[in-house]
Amino acid sequence: MNDNQTTAAPVEGHALVPASGDGQVLPASLAAGPDTFEDPGLPPHIHRAADIDPAAAKRAERQVATMFGISMLGALIFVVAYFAIRDEATFFLPGVGKTSTQNVVLGLSLGVSILFIGLGAVHWAKTLMSDEEVVEERHAQASSPEARAGAVTVVSDGVESTGLTRRPVLKYSLGGALGLFALPLGLQIAGSLGPVTVGELKETLWDPENNGGKPIRLMRDPEMTPIKLADVTNGSVFHVMPETLQHSIDERKHVLEGKAKAAVILIRLDPNDIKVQKARDWGVDGVVAYSKICTHVGCAVGLYEQQTHHLLCPCHQSTFDLTEDCKVIFGPAKRALPQLKITVDDEGYLVAPEGFAEAVGPSFWERKR
């Protein structure tokens, strides 16, 4: 035997057969190939209690209907809470702090509603629907008319196996749960985007009534220090908040919402580069202020290209041209960024004499411009 030949000791219970090429040997049972494996078949079917005991089936039916009933109750609580609980109502939630009562109740009721639709459907499938194992052999992709007719029969039999035709209480309770669950969603859409909120979307902390009717100073964000016109050099960029933000923080009144709507970007250009007269008139010596909230989905527009005078939204690449009153020149946004009119007070500080002339942020149904 030369150095390249190998031998193998017999494995107990397996005869050795020579393999081709490399001189190795394999047990005969492994060399025979996969055809020697037997089809294990399906395990014995284990019947559930509801399959053999009518009382257990009736009990499972009542349990499913109860879950759907709880879902309906959750949806009704949502609707009542939406109208009955005031927006200003709060309570102290351990570990979280001061929390909106309406938000908590709406979230919990909606969560309960959808949770028990899911639990009811799962319990229904596991206890009452047919669970017989079926083996289907693969066949050609093109089915014959007989096969298609058979498929319709299978679907019909499947509907029958759900018990909907024999258990009307399940059909009606499921229909009620799904029907009532749609109410909170429709109410949230119709109520939150209806005419009542249009004025609220137009109101920001830049409105003079938040400062006793007086113009509001522009403040650096986050330092909250006032900005003089002389501080803004050509090409410089300031992220700005209104001075009234501090009042909102002191009163703890919708601080995050107010800050999000009031975010402004302040930039100085050569006045000759500004092509729109209105944009030039609403600024001071080439210093212009625009809302930072993208009119697509509300991301912060904070990237400025000094050479092209373009503002870029980092979320979906909407691009706004500062020289053209921030009109959209690229991307999914459909509306220019709203401009904030600014001027200079007696001390040389930049101030906003009035709020935005239009609602900031993304589009909504009632928006006119």
UniProtKB/TrEMBL annotation:
Any single Pfam family the record assigns to this protein? QcrA_N
Against PROSITE patterns, the record matches this protein to: RIESKE
Keywords, in A-Z order: 2Fe-2S, Cell membrane, Disulfide bond, Electron transport, Iron, Iron-sulfur, Membrane, Metal-binding, Oxidoreductase, Respiratory chain, Transmembrane, Transmembrane helix, Transport
Q: What membrane topology was assigned to this protein in its record?
A: Multi-pass membrane protein
In which compartments does the protein localize? Cell membrane
Extract the Gene3D superfamilies matched here: Rieske [2Fe-2S] iron-sulphur domain
Query: PANTHER family of this UniProt entry?
Result: CYTOCHROME B-C1 COMPLEX SUBUNIT RIESKE, MITOCHONDRIAL
What's this chain's function? Iron-sulfur subunit of the cytochrome bc1 complex, an essential component of the respiratory electron transport chain required for ATP synthesis. The bc1 complex catalyzes the oxidation of menaquinol and the reduction of cytochrome c in the respiratory chain. The bc1 complex operates through a Q-cycle mechanism that couples electron transfer to generation of the proton gradient that drives ATP synthesis.
Per its record, how is this protein called by name? Cytochrome bc1 complex Rieske iron-sulfur subunit
